[in-house]
Amino acid sequence: MNIRKWKDSPALKETRDMLETKLEDKKVRGILNWIFQIAVVLIFGILAGIALFQSVTVQESAMEPTLQVGERFFVNRAVYKVSSPERGDIIVYKTSGSDDAALHIGRVIGLPGETVQISNGAVLINGEVYNENKNFPEISNAGLASDGVSLESGEYFVLGDNRNNSEDSRYGDIGNINKKYIVGKVWFVISPKDKFGFLKG
């Protein structure tokens, strides 16, 4: 058989074209599969982000000067699923389990099992003065804590940093905060730009 004629035969050309088409189809399928996998990862990442973090805008002056009205931050919703709030944590909480319940921001002062009292403008925990190492003003209104507030299991006592202009655990409409009503921990400041980053303080 003439090899040159065999190479140029229609049957061989058709076979070669078919193989090339299959190779191209395989490449296209590989690229599409790669794009699909990336899309799935991105979607899961976005969903995980929505589940773990929540964007909140400060609506009240209770946490000034640490957090100002209008500032935006991310709340870490996952951290208290695997741990408990610590003294000094800045948390976002509700006063009930209702979806429509307003969000409040406060600093954890008292922990479960402790007694918190405010006397002569100072915070006492189990009878000992609590030194926060921060320049907070002397408290003028002790509210419910004037005679001491005992915290049950899963309960926390919170105060706003703006001690004399804050609605917090000193008042009956807030009271002790049950852990199940804590949305999460203030974690990352989004705006303003000069405060962008992990929350300090």
TrEMBL record:
Keyword NAD: no
InterPro entries: LexA/Signal_pep-like_sf (IPR036286), Pept_S26A_signal_pept_1 (IPR000223), Pept_S26A_signal_pept_1_CS (IPR019758), Peptidase_S26 (IPR019533)
Keywords assigned: Hydrolase, Membrane, Protease, Transmembrane, Transmembrane helix
Domain Peptidase S26 residue range list: 32-189
Localization per Swiss-Prot or TrEMBL: Cell membrane; Membrane
Top-level division of the source organism's lineage: Bacteria
CDD domains on file: S26_SPase_I
Transmembrane segments: 31-53
Catalytic activity: Cleavage of hydrophobic, N-terminal signal or leader sequences from secreted and periplasmic proteins
Family: Belongs to the peptidase S26 family.
UniProt xrefs under NCBIfam families: sigpep_I_bact (TIGR02227)
Name of the protein this chain belongs to: Signal peptidase I
Species per Swiss-Prot/TrEMBL record: Blautia obeum
Gene: sipT_1
